[in-house]
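Handoff note, outgoing to incoming analyst
You'll be picking up this chain. Sequence as last confirmed:
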Amino acid sequence: MQIEYLTLSEINALLHNIDNVRDQAIITLIINTGIFLNELPLLTTESVNWDEKILTIPGNRAGKIPLNDQVFQALANWSKERPTVRSTALFITTKGKVKELSPRGVDKLIRKYAKKAGISKRVNAQVLRNTFAVRLLAKEISLAKATEILGINDPQSIKKYSQAAKEAPATVELKTKQDPAEVVEHVDTRPKFWQMIGKLFPTKPHPAKKMSELKGPIVPSPEEVIFGRSGAIEEIKSAVSHNQSLLLIGPIGIGKTHLLRHAQKIIGPNTIYIPSPAPIKIVLNQVCERLNPDWQKQIKPRATTREIAEYISNTSQTSDIEHRTILLIDNLHNLRVSDIDIFLVLLENFTIISAADELKPKLKQAWWKFKQLELSNLTDNAAKELIKYLTQNLSISDYELLETRILTFSNKLPLAIVDMVHQVSHRPIVTRDSVREIYHEAGVRYRDWTMAIVILWGIAIMFRFVALGTHSFEGYILAGFGMAVLGVIRFFMFKMR
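Most recent structure output, in case you need it:
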């Protein structure tokens, strides 16, 4: 029975008509290694040793196959396109539910591209394997070595392949190569020029990222993780050890609340986290409850805030210094001016680690009592670590694109990074299109053009008076038109704020 195989022209026609990176890798792999169809679904992301250019074959004929540059580059291209998913299968479906590509699916796509390439003969995975075997035996290597590479022990099959190789047109230069790695290198179907270019500029693979088994969006718990704030943590520890109050300053989303919550963990149980200093009476009640659970029995009913503050002052002075309570007060910018005196009592009796979005001038009596630490945006490395942590269980088509998009539009603010990741966390696969849709206001830069508008308005008025004095009707009209345009621009600037 005659063996069906493809000529070099048919191989090139087939490969040139493949418009999918995954399918290109599959067909190139079969043509260049002769891998069995039922072995393809068994391949995992760990099957390819990128450093040594070796493919590990699982199953009944477990072994290692050397990869030539052609198939290595095809697999490397697929590794960059393959979405990060929980499935470890090397070849997966790219539409619908993610799963390993079936043998039937592989045969179907081979027939599709053969038809597209105009190949009249019936082409399937076996024909591609036959093509590799015939081209391999055209190398005039020993039958024992061919048997080892092809993974077959049937003498009749080897004989058929050998006979076909003798009858085949000279598709490769005949040189005896006993090393399997050198043999498969010469099965490369590309022109010599492109083989040389491929060696000079090899495609860099993108090894698959291992995913977490967790489902749903990842929430960065302050009790567990914090990124890029080691300096601030040391400052907090130092302030606590020296009984010095510390104020964290930074815009919304910089991570102040997360840092205070993390401080609660590292300082220990002698802390009280207070979300806001207003109303001050609730803050005082929390402090009293920590100092003495029976505190209400020791002061008169309906005590004023000042009386409660005096009770706190007297009680805290008698407490053990080593076990003194540390107050963690968030959103200190919400402190009321009328409560400053009461708050100063707390500052005199406790070490307070606090946070504020801004330093309001009317509260400067309170600001003066703190050592101030201004938080900056995350560094590139810290922001990337946070993105990696948040996306550990997401299926992502192009992680580099997602990372770049988030870094650009988040302005490296932790809260903005979390928000942007959550915008795509519900998607089965985060495609490139969905990445391009994510957005955050933190990355938008606004400039105040008010002063420039005022100056131009003044110049337009001056020009109008000059035009009026020189009897220049055209200049007068032009200046009036300019004033109208500036007025419209200023109106829309107000509307957009």
